[in-house]
Amino acid sequence: MNRQKVLVLVGPTAVGKTELSLCLAQELAAEIISADSMQVYRGMDIGTAKPTPKERQRVPHHLLDVVDPDESFNVADYVDLAAAVLRRLQVKGTTPLLTGGTGLYVDALLEGFLFPDTPADPRIRKELEEQAREDPSSLYAELQQVDPASAMRLHPNDLRRIIRALEVYRRTGEPISALQQKRAQHQSPYDPLYIGLTRDRGELYERINRRVDLMLEAGLVQEVAGLLEKYPHQPTALQALGYKEIASFLRGEVTLAEAVDTLRRDTRRYAKRQLSWFRRNKRIFWFNRTGLTESQLLADILQLWRDFAGY
User: Fold this and answer.
1) pTM for the whole structure
2) DSSP letter assigned to residue 117
């Protein structure tokens, strides 16, 4: 099988993926495919650090502004849409540049086999564990509904595996049994070159703090207020980082200073989780941007890609 070559740029939030991806795409006449689970939502621009209209004019972008915040969207939806974009680019002979910080989306699209091994989602896991304490039999009943194949395989008292199966279902929208079957049959049609960006911790945290300041200056509070007015029932999208903290301020639960401190802290923690996820992929070529000039970084990545792509 002649697998499609894909340039992949990953790394934690605020590391500097956006500008570099634009420069790479322009050099390679590539088109950018976003791998960000929050940039798919319309109207969520500032808090997701979505590429600006001006930046999108420089290079064609895909999978931004796909659904409204009150619409459901999961990793399976993302894979379907991204695969369609990749097919179109392949027909055109255009280089695809996949970039973003949502490791689950990147792995699900390019490797396919990581679905059942998805790391725990603390929020979903906590909900299921609380349900297990209150009514353990309800978990098995739920599993029988959403994933009968797994329910037949598991004992009703095997709460650990039942919770795991339900966690995967709630996170991906697909039964773990179906994902395991896909994994067994999967042969990826893609041949990715993974580039990872990082920075020294102090510098990255300083950039995160600065990004939060810039978001506030750009009107983050007003953006969240408008979304809450339009979507008063607070769909899942508005529980995202940058939105839930400001929503707490707008509801009068905390001061703006407290909300901003929480946002900075939670963004730092998120960056650490992103790095932990990506470090599991031993195929990533890592570049520490601290002390590395933009021109040298660009030249090194372009040479890696040209060697990889054979031109």
Assistant:
1) 0.79
2) G
pLDDT tens digits, 208-242: 999 999 999 999 999 999 999 999 887 788 889 99
Assess whether pLDDT exceeds 50 at residue 116: no
Architecture of domain 117-184: Orthogonal Bundle (1.10)
Assigned token pair, 142:
């739920």
Mean local confidence (pLDDT), 248-258: 97
* CATH no. for 4-112+188-309: 3.40.50.300
Strands of 31-34's sheet, edge to edge? 61-62, 31-34, 96-100, 4-10, 190-198, 285-288
pLDDT in tens, 128-145: 999 989 998 999 999 999
Is the Cβ–Cβ distance between 62 and 56 less than 8 Å?
A: no
Domain range summary for the chain, segments of one domain joined by + = 4-112+188-309, 117-184
Distance CA 154, CA 147 (A): 11
Q: What is the DSSP string of 66-105?
A: -B-TTS---HHHHHHHHHHHHHHHHHHTPPEEEEES-HHH
Per DSSP, what are the bridge partners of residue 62? Answer: 33
Confidence of residue 303 (pLDDT cuts 50, 70, 90): very high
- Distances from the Cα of 65 to the Cαs of 34, 36, 282, 283, in angstroms? 10, 11, 32, 30
β partners of residue 31 = 96
What pLDDT does residue 187 have?
73
Greatest CA separation for the chain: 61
- The contacts of residue 188 (CB under 8 Å, 6+ apart) are 3, 110, 111, 112
Give the whole-angstrom CA distance, residue 247 versus residue 228: 8
Determine contact, residues 7/24, Cβ cutoff 8 Å: yes
Q: Which helix (H) or strand (E) holds 286?
A: strand 285-288
